[in-house]
Amino acid sequence: LFSTSGSVALGVKRGFCVAAAVEDGKVKVGDVRKGRVRSFQEIPHTGRSGWVNLLRFWREDRFRQLHKHMERTFSALGPIYRENVGTLSSVNILLPADVAELFQSEGLHPRRMTLQPWATHREIRQHSKGVFLKNGEEWRSDRLQLNKEVMMSGAVQRFLPLLDEVARDFCRMLQVRVEKEGRSLTMDPSPDLFRFALEASCHVIYGERIGLFSSSPSLESQKFIWAVERMLTTTPPLLYLPPRLLLCLSAPLWTQHATAWDHIFSHAEARIQRGYQRLASSQGGGSVAGAAGGQYPGVLGQLMEKGQLSLDLIKANITELMAGGVDTTAVPLQFALFELGRNPEVQEKVRQQVRTSWAQAGGDPQKALQGAPLLKGTIKEVLRLYPVGITVQRYPVKDIVLQNYHIPAGTMVQACLYPMGRSSEVFEDPLRFDPTRWSSGREEGRRAEGSGFRSLAFGFGARQCVGRRIAENEMQLFLMHMLLSFHLSVSSSEDLKTTATLILQPETPPRITFSRLSGAPI
Ligand code: HEM
Fold it and tell me: How much distance in Å is there from the Cα of 338 to the middle of ligand 1?
């Protein structure tokens, strides 16, 4: 029983009697009958001084192994712990029931980690106008505009054929390369996957193909891929140090970060200018879509045509969609090829379903995906074992209680996806790669409280990943065409070592053998 207006709240969680007085939306900690909500200070922690912890993190290279550090800390301290590192403090949680509590608490401020203090550089200031770093009402109204163009089912129907075209072209390109070698080709596919993801993003966002599958892709695109990678790897230190200290300790790092953003912005800027020229020439003639011969003009074209966001906001949001849309799909695809390669039986099962669905869909990619739910299961399984972001953060606007501890409003609480995905408390046989575990009717863990909160790689609620539908469809279409065309294998089935920058990546990209299947449809 929870009563926000009254003075007492009682609840039973995991055998504890949770009891707290609630006044004006604030949890008052104290003994009430059997139970006592324990104070924030009592939450197990990894050491009180953020600066000592920061030194430890540096000495032991824990930033790049943060996911493993979290796994170890949960097994030592239990399902909730506090950690201070430099200027950053967080409460870390592991179990779906607590994550459900966090995300569902009424009136949560939809805010996450912010780089606002760093917004001294021109381009980063511009970037912070996009949805990623904004909060509150301003965020909500921009986000609703963006949702119409990238999240709603009408938008998915518009951009799905564009993603399908890119995925098919990629397979054709690979088939030609495999044929040159005979019947199979063994390689590190990561550079090609980055090109695939950039080509797909540009097609959906700008309505434009940029020719990355040609034998000599442009230098500009290579530079963009490099810039996104630099931006991601140089971000984490900025989150833990106050600006002045960082500038003293590592000015080159800051310069690299700012230069990477400059590049990402100039890449978007050039295309936005072109979009405006197109819009200007189409005025009088109707629409950007009209100017492009009635075709879907991409997200940028749609936003410009509707004119509900200012030029500055369109620019900031388009840049974020571009910056957030390449590594985030290219890296999980590396993991997906690896896991399918080292689990041939799983691969065959998914392929059989894809073949049947493809044959029945009559060339309609959306229908083909709908008929092959194991593709979706494969993506969920990849993101369970290798979540792109190892945590999702929230700052509750009201006091809440987690694991019977009082969490004051404004605390950063992180749902720790990597340790959750590999926890035997949450998943049966967690290290087994099994796309069928997500099949309807077989949702293991239904017994567990909050079991719906086990697949959170894209976040949750109104603030969830705005690129989710693009990413899911892009990755599923890619895997669909790969499985129709190639048999995948790996020479070593040893676990991949991983490293966490801003996203989780393999330490060394896996090598995959692509063998041509006879009768491939492309
Ligand atoms: C597998 C691929 C991806 C994963 C796992 C992923 C994950 C996430 C997560 C966890 C968040 C925070 C959500 C929350 O706090 O609840 C997020 C936000 C965001 N993502 Fe993604 N993402 C992916 C792909 C993409 C793509 C393809 C794009 C762009 C086309 C994109 C653009 C963004 C943006 C702009 C935000 C901020 C949204 C907001 O705060 O309103 N992401 N993503």
Answer: 23
